[in-house]
Specification:
It is a single chain. The chain starts with a helix and ends in an 8-residue tail after the last helix. The model has no long low-confidence stretch (mean pLDDT about 80). It has two helices and no strands. The protein is mostly helical. Pfam families: LtrA. Keywords: Membrane, Transmembrane, Transmembrane helix. This is Low temperature requirement A protein (LtrA).
Length: about 90
C-alpha cells in the first residue's frame, strides 16, 4: 500500500509541472505572439525560430528536472534503496 507522504510528493510534482505548463501557455506564449505581430520579414523568422525552439526546450528541461526531483523525493520518502552509482 502506498503511504500518504509518497502520494503527497507525487501530487506536488504534478502540481509543479502543471504550473510550468500554465506559466508558459498563459504568459509566455501571448507575449511571444505580440512580439511576432510587431516584427516583419527576416527578423520575424529569426525571432520565431529562436523563441519557440528555446522556450519549448526550457519547458521540457524544466519538466525533466521536476521529474528527477520528484524521483529523489519519492526515493527518500518511500525509503527505497538507491540504485548503484547514484
Amino acid at each position: 500500500m502506498t503511504r500518504p507522504p509518497v502520494l503527497g510528493a507525487a501530487l506536488v510534482g504534478l502540481a509543479v509541472t502543471v504550473c510550468l505548463w500554465w506559466l508558459y501557455f498563459d504568459h509566455v506564449a501571448p507575449a511571444a505572439e505580440r512580439t511576432l505581430d510587431r516584427s516583419t520579414g527576416d527578423r520575424r523568422d529569426r525571432i520565431a525560430s529562436d523563441a519557440y525552439s528555446l522556450s519549448h526546450l526550457l519547458l521540457v528541461v524544466g519538466v525533466i528536472y521536476v521529474a528527477l526531483g520528484v524521483e529523489e523525493v519519492l526515493t527518500v520518502v518511500h525509503g527505497a534503496p538507491r540504485p548503484p552509482g547514484r
